Amino acid sequence: MFLKKSTHPLAAFVERLQAGQALLPDTPENVTEVVGILKSYGVVLDAYYRNLIYIADHQFLVLFPFFKYFNGQVSLGRLWRHWCHDRINFEYAEYAMKVMLWHGGGRLDAYLNTPEFEQAARRAIAAKIRHNWPIRSLHQLFPNFLLEQVRQLVYYSALGQFWQVMSPLFLTLSDRYDGGEIQSIPQIVQHILDGLVAAASQPITYTVRVREQPYEIIPAAADLTFLMDVGVPYVESIFFRGTPFFGTVSYNAQANQISPDQSRFAYGALYADPLPIGGAGIPPTLLMQDMRHYLPDYLHDLYLQQPRGEDDLRVKICISFQKSMFCVTTATILGLMPYPLNTQQPTEQQANRTYFEAWMDRFLTSQLLAVQQG
């Protein structure tokens, strides 16, 4: 069956996806930017995921975790570097976790509201506060307070497990590029897609030890998996919805600049204007600052050749990062298609067309057109 041309405002991108191509143009400069920034991002994610999992496993219901960013390795030297901000900005990892927690969605969010989860969490809570009389009194006054803390710790662990897969996926991409295997944007997308598919059914579990006794908070029997239960909600929360940044929009309800409907939020990585990056109160500034320290030489040299050199380096990094996230999004879109691209069934072809157009509806106000220019 020959489908008529799409009439969608972003029809060109619908056709591009139907042909198995990426949302980002396939140019040598884009390949350099995407691989280079994902290498840096992979290094940063390695630090992020280790810290998130450390907090989930070793700071369980520690209400004032002063040393949570030290991964159990506290020393005067590390403390001094921490105060001087000579460190990874783990605050950004927590920001991403809290955005996921706030937006919710998916089977992980649903499981956290089941009697099974509550029973498991309350057993761990009881063990943790058994000899802590002030916290036991607090728990009696506010029985859901610690339960909500456990829900948050689940997201610490789940996002840590998600990034634990994504970090080596991006670093392997860089290795393949260095070896000459990766030379195009479609190859980048395929690499990411293959990685997502390989890890799709990897179980997401969470067990915490209290006084050497294990307590299953998210057991394997919950049947939560890497892609559908963490990966897809992550894309929804971080790539699409996000949160409005202080100083860029008014939080005054009368100004009507923020929708009361979370599902209509469009502040994620695919929508964000890169220009405010570097300003106070813009959370991605922390991520760009972290990636700045791990840029491969070839990407740093490319930035130096562009106008302003290092004067707007964080903005340049953000633009490259946004391009890379459109590649990750392409892999996600292709991976979740209802039917194969090469299907010859008319109804299946039409279903794929409808599926792609639904995605394009969400890209109408994104930076998709902007990343086509550079």
Plain-language structure description:
The protein has 374 residues and is mainly α. The chain contains 14 helices and 2 strands. The protein has helices at 11-18, 28-58, 76-83, 90-103, 106-111, 115-128, 133-141, 145-178, 185-199, 226-241, 284-292, 297-305, 313-335, 346-363, and strands at 206-210, 213-218. A two-stranded antiparallel sheet has the order 1-2. Strand 1 (206-210) and strand 2 form a beta hairpin. The radius of gyration is 22 Å and the shape is globular. It starts with 10 loop residues before the first helix and ends in an 11-residue tail after the last helix.
Our measurement of the CA-to-CA distance between the termini, rounded to an integer number of angstroms, reads: 36 Å
H/E series, N to C?
HHHHHHHHHEEHHHHH
Quaternary: single chain
Q: What is the total tally of β strands? A: 2
Radius of gyration: 22 Å
Strand content: under 5%
**What sort of overall outline do the alpha carbons produce when their principal axes are compared?**
globular
Instruction: Give the strand order of the largest sheet, numbering strands 1, 2, ... along the chain.
Output: 1-2
Indicate the structural class: mainly alpha
Helix content: 55-70%
**Any low-confidence stretches, pLDDT <50, length ≥5?**
none
Individual helix count:
14
Q: Give the overall average pLDDT.
A: 93
Largest sheet: 2 strands, antiparallel
Write a concise keyword list for the protein shown above.
374 residues; globular; single chain; 3% strand; 2 strands; mainly alpha
Short overview:
Helix content is 57%, strand content 3%. It is mainly alpha-helical and 374 residues long.
